[in-house]
Amino acid sequence: MMPLHVITGAGGTGAPTAELLARRGERVRLVxxxxxxxxxxxxxRIAADATDADALSxxxxxxxxxxxxxxxxxDRWPEEFPPLATALLxxxxxxxxxxxxxxxxxxxxxxxxxxxxxLPMAPVSVKGQVRARMWTExxxxxxxxxxxxxxxxxSAFLGAGAGSLYNFLVAPLVLRGEPAGFPGDLDTPxxxxxxxxxxxxxxxxALAGDDRxxxxxWHVPSTAALSIRELSTRLTTAAGAPAPALTAISTDQLAAxxxxxxxxxxxxxxxxxxxxxxxLDSTLTERTFGLAPTPLETVxxxxxxxxxxxx
Length: 311
Known about the structure:
With 311 residues, the chain is an alpha/beta fold. The protein has a domain at 4-154 and 195-220: NAD(P)-binding Rossmann-like Domain (Rossmann fold, 3-Layer(aba) Sandwich), CATH 3.40.50.720. 40% of the residues lie in helices and 17% in strands. It is built from 13 helices and 13 strands. It has helices at 14-23, 53-60, 77-95, 126-143, 165-169, 171-175, 195-206, 228-239, 251-257, 262-267, 271-274, 283-289, 296-307; strands at residues 4-8, 27-32, 43-47, 65-68, 98-104, 114-115, 149-154, 156-158, 180-183, 192-194, 217-219, 246-249, 279-280. Strand 1 (4-8), helix 1 and strand 2 (27-32) form a beta-alpha-beta unit. The model has no long low-confidence stretch (mean pLDDT 96). This is Nucleoside-diphosphate-sugar epimerase. It comes from Parafrankia irregularis.
């Protein structure tokens, strides 16, 4: 029988991961609240609540891996992420499926230099504390021999379908030739993780077939450092749109906006990362799994197609 991979979450990383695995001839059970996702003969789409450990355990029985890409709404992480993480770890322990977590860099806190996978968890935000606790509890289960766990960590997402601040606040506007605002320093360098590369990393870990992935984190192969201004200029040039008109949004302005937008309220505590370089080192992942970042030109072309141009 073909290997089975259970993926929770059918969004920007879950759906492409399911497609990648199915194209490799692997069976995929894609679990989400609405039962959505791509159509493929090897993808079984299931509507279920991933916080229900009993139901998910039945769905994951005999699975090779359990891959979580589900994320609660940004303003409800402290309330909704812990029960989801607890249920998923419980399922991994019950079924023996290798547990692959889709994560980010929030748990590292403030870092001088490049983010590497061996950095300790040192969160300085509530959302960072949530991420750090999820990883710490999973790693404890791994070290105790109760589960095999790993985490794939991305920087800020790019690409069509990515639920990222850049896609919400900048990309659609500058492609229409409209002014856009973004929190933090517009000229500080940052690496960017393409959602397709996050999916390729998740798939590579799931298909490794040995013990290399387990008990540690892996960084998504990501672009060379580009500031918000540089990235936006590259995007509008690719679209043949006018040069971007960008404005930095201050913390005070965010606070004013947050009165009507709970998501913007959550961005305030992340200003430390928006004002500083955010540089993800993915050397270990690239060498171990033979991966490389998708060329930025390809990612920008996809973004232009997704959001349209002003011409």
